[in-house]
User: Fold these one by one.
Assistant:
Number 1:
Amino acid sequence: MLGAMQDWDLRVTHLIDHAAREHGSREIVTRWADGSETRTNWAGIRHDALRMTQALRRLGVQQGDRIATLAMNHARHLVSWYGAVGVGGVLHTINPRLFDDQLEYIANHAEDRVLLYDAAFKPIIERMKPKWTTIRHYICFDNGEFEDWIGAEDGVAEWASGDERDPCMLCYTSGTTGNPKGVLYEHRSTMLHAMTGLQPSIFDFDTRSVMLPVVPMFHAASWGLPWAGASAGVKFVFSAVNDAAVLCELMNREGVTHSAGVPTVWLATFKHMDETGIDLPALRHAIIGGSAAPRFMIERLMKAGVNVAHAWGMTETSPIGTTGAMTWDWADKSFEERVDVKQMQGRVPFGVELRTVDLGDPTVVLPRDGKTSGALQVRGPWIIKRYFKAEQDAVTPDGWFDTGDVGIIHPDGTLQLTDRTKDVIKSGGEWISSVELENAAVGHPAVAEAAAIGIYHPKWDERPILVVVKKPGAEVGAEEIKAHLAQHVAKWWLPDAIEFVDEIPHGATGKISKKDLRDQFRDYKLAEA
Ligand code: AMP
């Protein structure tokens, strides 16, 4: 027997219909790269998205075809998200910071048919065009072409219908080894994820929220914000450039209450605030994720009365996995204890399950004891099952996806990430967390950035070295940094050497590339080894 409720498939076009119907006049503001500004609203986004579906149909785009974007954050990019899924297509957001061989691989692997791009990325298009074998149509967002293209349509159209398990979006992971891998989101998984994002512990949206997403629309589905934002009818403020001065000015002028970005974005914002003395008085909710948020960052935002949602997730998890939410005994906690809680990666929302397994023997599930660290596995309705076009599932026989992260789960369910599986340093059979060493190192006032890697050691197998970039004008020696670290980590964790460099290599999403760093130090010999 089936239940007797209405059929209302979980397709993401319901989001834009709702936003246009219930929050139609809520503004969507764009500050473009040339400094100009445009304003539309949710009703306007829906109308343009419908016109785009008509224009795509005219190009012969079929259900399931991949429609790619190579663009920063702006209203037309938002239109293209809904236009692409509206025609029954699969939106493929490409990260313009990828290397050419990755760009070549992913567009061809995805079999992209149409590419919408920002004029700023024209050099990439010119370079890649001869190598991209499936793209038939190139449309520029900001030279009048996009406007003319959809301008020829009247917007009197229907969204494509289909199954809620149909794909709607494709994102490739940055991948530190091998080719990038595609994660194919479904309408259903995206809808469940969008509704989950509204929770206070995650985006904390209501109809008064004004969100400036600094996280790019090409990174991990912009954390699902363009979908969740529509369901809550938030006002979006987009900036096509990521300059801290521009962002701060926009935040204050538009009354931005919510923002989201990786730690480096917040660092740049703080620097600008310190240089100019400005505040962000309207800001009340900051989502920080993508890599670990340093303690001082959380402290500073909390002291300014901002609620910090320190989030862990991956492209493979849509990406919401956990967020550092308030605990039931929040009122009894001191400020320091509250920062301790927020510094960890937090707890799952309903719909995500976590477990850790032994790093050496993955059949052994570890206790949630707040002490034992292991390989982090995850499952749920918006977690990957299989990579795009892969022949095998990416999950264990009992359905868990191995994240490649290493962490501890506390008795109350709080996740504390300690490393990546590939980055933990094994010394004398015991694990050293490179992340904890790095976190301790950046706590030193003269250290701008630090990365710990394992170096071969004949006796201990591996020993850590710490690679450090000093802050401009700062002077500090290896011994001083070691003494500082000794206050935070066990003595046997202390790096055998500290190397000062001008720059640490970063990947396309701005994270430290340990692989490149290890390559750089491949022939490094420890003095006493
Ligand atoms: P990506 O798929 O590019 O979004 O990268 C996902 C990876 O980023 C995760 O597997 C983690 O290693 C890392 N990551 C994401 N959020 C956090 C966080 N809050 N703290 C530490 N690492 C994080």
Note: The chain has three domains: 13-343, 353-420, 425-520.
Number 2:
Amino acid sequence: MTSSPRIPSVDPVKLDRLAEVAVKIGLQLQPGQDLLITAPLAALPLVRRITEHAYKAGAGLVTSLYSDEEATVMRYRNAPDDSFDRSVGWLYEGMAKAFSANTARLAVAGDNPMLLASEDPEKVSRANKAQSKAYQPALEKIAGFDINWNIVSYPNPSWAKQVFPDQEPEVAVTMLADAIFAASRVDIDDPVSAWQEHNAALRKRTEWLNARTFSALHFTGPGTDLTVGLADEHEWHGGASVAKNGITCNPNIPTEEVFTTPHALRVDGHVSSTKPLSHQGTLIENIKVRFEDGKIVEAKATRGEEVFNKVLGTDEGARRLGEVALVPHSSPISASGLLFFNTLFDENAASHIALGQCYSKCFINGGELSPGEVAARGGNRSLIHIDWMIGSGEIDVDGINKDGSPVPVMRKGEWV
Ligand code: ZN
Ligand code: ZN
């Protein structure tokens, strides 16, 4: 006899609103456009709501690919050693082909962040590297905004257990669901209008920053004195973005950040992380790094240092920055006080930097630049893109003009 697991209590009305926001705001899916969804198996209820909203919006073909946490663990326990240097290249080539044919992309996040915590770190690192390499052609189309794309989250029970370890499983799922719904602005009756207002507020910030054309940002606070040179002809983005296919999408739900491309060769000083970085099953805490001419020359962490150094060794660009983002300390996600162990949420709780690949979109006329032109303006290139938090209520940020004079941008973590 088998017993079916109890269905966790996720508010069906808010779940349906999240699906509607993903399709109408996140993707702005167009009539006739195909859609590719990737999701953990547990997110099936959300994927079904999204699929219905997508077809109602006129989608052509909606295709879903599911990942299964148990199957992933089975691989680490049983697969032959040499298979960890391979990945499903044929699948990612197919994805890249679909994106070239204007298929929209929706990723449902919600995997257990600690799934691989007790597996062999060497195998995890090799598998990640092989996957990043195989995924590169598809990732370039997403990072370059060739198409409209979006990420939303589902409160997977295994994830909820990490965020609320002291709660009963059903209670943890309900609490995580509520946190996701609040952060995603679907806990109110008219989430589509709320998102339009939020996008307008973020646009005001990016317009101000773009008008200033700072040459650098200077972060100061406890354990941090960091000058992040900004790429030549960089452009700030936040909230809604126009993809190269002409569709305005909101790639991240939730989102609170405004972000741009740093100059890969002009980052100097030292910086301390203000929140733990959860990276593929390892928690990396109290990161302290020193930059010289854009490159990390010294890296320490009180926990997960070995994994962090492995990440930095991925390739030449992994020691340089591909993103700098500003988020006020009073953002709703920061105010929740939760650590989500999920970049989509945690990066929207604090100002952050990202190691690795830059977004070519974050340049004036970025959509038209070749990879060589992006590099010439200071854009970094890497197989990885990993965000970690450097903002808090104690961090000041100044914009540095071309003549070296500072302009206050943030004081004690808030917009001036
Ligand atoms: Zn970011
Ligand atoms: Zn990022």
Note: The chain has two domains: 12-183, 213-236+257-415.
